[in-house]
Amino acid sequence: MRQGLTLWFTGLSGAGKTTLNVAVRDRLAARGLAVESLDGDEVRRHLGRGLGFSKEDRDENIRRIGYVASLLTRHGVIVLVSAISPYRVVRKEVRAMIGHFVEVYVNAPLDVCEHRDVKGLYRKARAGLLPGFTGIDDPYEEPISPEIECRTDRESVDQSVDKIVRYLEDRFNCQ
Predict the structure, then answer these.
(1) How far is Cα of residue 55 from the mean position of the Cα atoms in its chain?
(2) Which strands, in side-by-side order, build the sheet including 101-107?
(3) Where in the sequence is the domain holding 70, given as residue range(s)?
């Protein structure tokens, strides 16, 4: 059985986490690899009912996503997680839980993320309708040394995906 691993896409809302997740998933699945995507919003809807957006609830949501990712990873699946996961301490905790973990910092400046905001979340946050919104009035703690950084304000989706897939080929023999 092939060794599983988790690619953890972290970054602000609108940075491109889900876009990269889907593109990497499609590229790896086309190679016949066992791949599963976990989107933070989707997992929150199904496993995070009752959780709000306090720091404690956000941390618990990330732990739950991490637990599911660890189970899949242990069974040889390449797990692609897209979750803002704003706090370094919990990302470090999840990394330790999973083991085979690759942090992908999907980096785009706040103004670019606000411009891309199709859901209107930043506008609502700026108007005071979404208190505690990450990047506006709640912090996003950037990764200190991610394995991969994708500058989605400067790179095309294909360039970022190529960078991620090359890393997986080099480090994990994902051919």
Answers:
(1) 17
(2) 35-39, 78-82, 5-10, 101-107, 148-151
(3) 5-172
Give CA 5 to chain center in angstroms.
14
| Residue 160 known to be catalytic | no
Q: What CATH number does residue 102 fall under?
A: 3.40.50.300
Reported as a single tens digit per residue, the pLDDT across 2-40 is: 789 999 999 999 999 999 999 999 999 999 999 999 987
Which residue type is seen at 71?
Answer: L
The total domain count for the chain is: 1
pLDDT in tens, 138-169: 999 999 999 999 999 999 999 999 999 999 99
Angle (deg, nearest 10), helices 88-98 and 55-74: 20
Gyration radius from the chain CA atoms = 16
DSSP-assigned beta bridge partners for residue 9: 82, 104
Decide if 74 contacts 34 (C-beta within 8 A): no
In this structure, are residues 52 and 133 in contact, taking their beta carbons and an 8 Å threshold? no
Q: Check: CB of residue 71 under 8 Å from CB of residue 3.
A: no
Which of 85, 145, 156, 160 is an active site residue?
85
